[in-house]
Design a protein that fits this description.
The chain has an eight-stranded parallel beta sheet with strand order 8-11-12-13-14-15-16-17. The chain is built from 15 helices and 21 strands. The longest helix is centred in the middle third of the chain and has 18 residues, at 214-231. It has helices at residues 75-84, 102-112, 131-144, 163-176, 187-199, 207-210, 214-231, 243-254, 265-269, 280-285, 295-307, 322-325, 345-354, 361-375, 459-470, and strands at 2-6, 9-11, 16-18, 20-24, 27-32, 42-45, 50-53, 55-60, 65-66, 69-70, 87-94, 119-125, 148-152, 179-183, 235-237, 259-264, 312-314, 393-403, 422-432, 435-439, 442-443. The protein has a single domain, classed as Metal-dependent hydrolases (TIM Barrel, Alpha-Beta Barrel). It is globular. The chain is an alpha/beta fold. Bound molecules: dihydropyrimidine-2,4(1H,3H)-dione and zinc ion (2 copies). The site of one zinc ion has 3 residues, from loops.
Length: 479
């Protein structure tokens, strides 16, 4: 089954040009002017529209068991919502419980994800350490297409990775040609501040951001970066929400360190006043970690994206409905952390980034797709409109307008953090593996059509880093 996308402007990270695109057998087969439709092809009229690489959301948590409940969005509904918003691949997280065998957790997540309607891949979290974790990391990289390991520096008493785990896992990642990633918040400080606030009688959602100040994030980001520097391993810092962590990344990059930073659409566009909303459900719906911040931080994050010190945009899509959030009615510490956005990431970034002149269209493609594909080593299979690439494409109508609402979106959650936002520019069609899976508001997805995408290790580049790391051997001093 082939598809011809006709009359549009192809927008890649590096250039834009007028061309038709033919997809066949799940791949892009031809790009050029005035292409003939193959017999029986589906034709998509892209006149006046942009033909861009499908979005990659490198940070989602579909059906995550977390804080005593399970995220309401599963792999089928979540990837469907992603496709409706032009996102054709997610990278989700396998998160083993403390002491849970890594391979067992990995197999469990692979099973859950089989119903995905778009392509997906997995980072694997390192939540504890012993020889089996060391060995299983090797198995995951060598045999299962995993090239990134996640470390939660927060969530004390649950999945938090202390310095010992970070050091062991970062060093092992380097050996294997994998990239460590961190959720950077100082979990000890957060734990203490939460307790102090609660004991002072601050029990509502307003306590959430107070217990997780930007300094906690900046400290953790800097610590992870310095550990990575000593061990000579690249590092990816997820969901930077504040000036402090951006500064740590910027400083390291200026010093030549290979550090990457991600920002969430929500952190760019939602501010922390929401936590003081008088309605508990509204405030609690926005409880996620790190929390939304003040406009000073939002401005800094936009500049980070514009300057290239932040390379990717994500959502941390992790949905909990009001009845789940109610677990923390009397204690903000028990509100399940997480918000949605996989469907809206691209359109809010286009509206607030491209329409305002903060980002060019090519930069938009970089930060929504290409950079994630490159950093996580699936480029140019993903993140590129080029012959031979996977035919994961979004046809973008820059004139289309809409008002975002949980009443009309496809996300399986009862609120939307961008509720009421009016935007201009959104997908008219999404093409996944060469098939039109979303057309003008209508989803045409097939349960289980999504594939697990292997991500190979970064072998040749890491060889040089490993040699340098070995140079840190002791030098005998003659006395
Ligand atoms: N933050 C969230 O808000 N939810 C899931 C995990 C995380 O780090
Ligand atoms: Zn996180
Ligand atoms: Zn997350």
């Amino acid at each position: 089954m082939s598809t011809l996308i006709k009359g549009g402007t192809v927008v890649n990270a590096e250039q834009s040009f007028q061309a038709d695109v033919i997809c066949d057998g799940g791949l892009i087969k031809a790009i050029g002017p005035d292409l003939e439709a193959p017999a029986g092809a589906t034709v998509v009229d892209a006149g006046g529209q942009y033909v861009m690489p499908g979005g990659i959301d490198p940070h989602t948590h579909m059906q995550l068991p977390f804080m005593g409940t399970v995220a309401s969005e599963d792999f089928e509904s979540g990837t469907s919502a992603g496709l409706a918003g032009g996102t054709t691949m997610i990278i989700d997280f396998v998160i083993p419980g403390p002491q849970q065998n890594l391979m067992e957790a990995y197999k469990q997540w692979r099973e859950w994800a089989e119903k995905s309607v778009s392509d997906y891949s997995f980072h694997v979290a390192i939540t504890w350490w012993d020889d089996s974790v060391h060995d299983d990391m090797g198995t995951l990289v060598r045999d299962h297409g995993v090239n990134s390991f996640k470390h939660f520096m927060a969530y004390k008493g649950a999945i938090m990775a202390d310095d010992e785990i970070l050091v062991n896992s970062f060093a092992r990642s380097l050996e294997l040609g994998a990239i460590p990633t961190v959720h950077a918040e100082n979990g000890e400080l957060v734990f203490r501040l939460q307790k102090e606030l609660f004991e002072k009688g601050i029990t509502g959602p307003e306590g959430h951001p107070l217990s997780r100040p930007p300094e906690c994030e900046g400290e953790a980001a800097n610590r992870a970066i310095r550990i990575a520097e000593v061990l000579k391993v690249p590092l990816y810092v997820v969901h930077n929400s504040c000036r402090q962590s951006l500064e740590a990344i910027t400083r390291a990059r200026n010093e030549g360190q290979r550090v990457f930073g991600e920002v969430l659409a929500g952190h760019l566009l939602v501010d922390d006043s929401i936590y003081r909303h008088k309605d508990f459900d509204t405030a609690a719906a926005h409880v996620m970690s790190p929390p939304f911040r003040s406009s000073e931080h939002q401005d800094a994050l936009w500049k980070g994206l514009q300057s290239g010190n932040l390379q990717t945009t994500a959502t941390d899509h992790c949905c909990f409905c009001a009845d789940q959030k109610a677990a923390g009615k009397d204690d903000f510490r028990l509100i399940p952390n997480g918000t949605g956005g996989v469907e809206n990431r691209m359109e809010v970034l286009w509206h607030h980034g491209v329409n305002t002149g903060k980002l060019t269209m090519n930069e938009f493609v970089k930060v929504t797709s290409t950079n994630a594909a490159q950093i996580f080593n699936v480029y140019p299979r993903k993140g590129s409109i080029s012959v031979g690439a996977d035919a994961d494409i979004v046809v973008w109508d820059p004139e289309a307008t809409k008002t975002i609402s949980s009443k009309t979106d496809h996300q399986n959650v009862d609120y939307n953090i961008f509720e009421g936002m009016q935007i201009k520019g959104c997908p008219s069609h999404t093409i996944s593996q060469g098939n039109v899976v979303y057309a003008n508001g209508e989803l045409r997805v097939e349960r289980g059509a999504g594939r697990y995408i292997d991500r190979p290790p970064f072998a040749p580049y890491y060889d040089a880093l490993q040699k340098q790391a070995r140079h840190a051997e002791p030098v005998a001093v003659k006395r």
